[in-house]
Backbone:
């Protein structure tokens, strides 16, 4: 199973950027990095994904290192509603399975 | 956007009874859906892959006779927890792949809101 390593927890002040790191040193060339988050007692919510180029959407930015062994999810202006567990996952494009790791519990404080 | 709906959102049952949870893709067809289970303060664990018109594929360690999966149509998969016991109490979540055209990002899995099962 694909393995990622994330810090267990992080804090971020409201309005500041939240930078969530992820190590995926065993990722192979055709595997995408996906980020999801799960707010308490809800289903996971898709945030963003990428292969090797940096990506940005209305929710976040994804920075992938050149060697693709790690990535950082950036929430540019964190709000209290961004408090959640953030999961970094990678999988082959032609495989639908997502195997979740332990994730990072992000706490945004006022 | 593509929505996956689960029903019921929560259910309480007596030990020994069976409980059915439905997972529907509301505005798209899903030939494959996935069922996850999540215990408190733990991550999601993939239980099985539900395939329309064929048998489900179970992950190692998941009892197929205990967790019956039926995917009879392109928009509905059901998970039946048979002879439920307190240790089956958990948060059950399904997901389906969003087809091209629904979002600007291809090959994204969307998740239902989850169904919380409590077995007394």
Residues:
């Amino acid at each position: 199973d694909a393995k990622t390593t994330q810090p267990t927890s992080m804090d971020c002040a409201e309005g500041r950027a939240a930078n969530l790191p992820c190590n995926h040193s065993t990722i192979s060339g055709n595997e995408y990095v996906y980020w999801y988050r799960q707010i308490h007692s809800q289903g996971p919510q898709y945030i963003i994904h990428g292969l090797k180029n940096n990506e940005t959407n209305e929710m976040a930015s994804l920075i992938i290192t050149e060697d693709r062994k790690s990535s950082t999810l950036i929430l540019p202006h964190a709000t209290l509603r961004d408090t959640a567990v953030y999961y970094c996952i990678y999988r082959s494009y032609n495989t639908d399975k997502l195997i979740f790791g332990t994730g990072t519990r992000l706490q945004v404080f006022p | 956007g593509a929505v996956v709906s689960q029903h019921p959102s929560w259910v309480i049952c007596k030990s020994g009874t069976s409980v059915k949870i439905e997972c529907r893709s509301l505005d798209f067809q899903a030939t494959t859906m996935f069922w996850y289970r999540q215990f408190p303060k733990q991550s999601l664990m993939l239980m099985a892959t539900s395939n329309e018109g064929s048998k489900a594929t179970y992950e190692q360690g998941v009892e197929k006779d205990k967790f019956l999966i039926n995917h009879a149509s392109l928009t509905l998969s059901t998970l039946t927890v048979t002879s439920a016991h307190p240790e089956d109490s958990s948060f059950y979540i399904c997901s389906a792949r969003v087809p091209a055209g629904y979002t600007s990002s291809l090959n994204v899995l969307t998740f239902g809101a989850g169904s919380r099962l409590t077995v007394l």
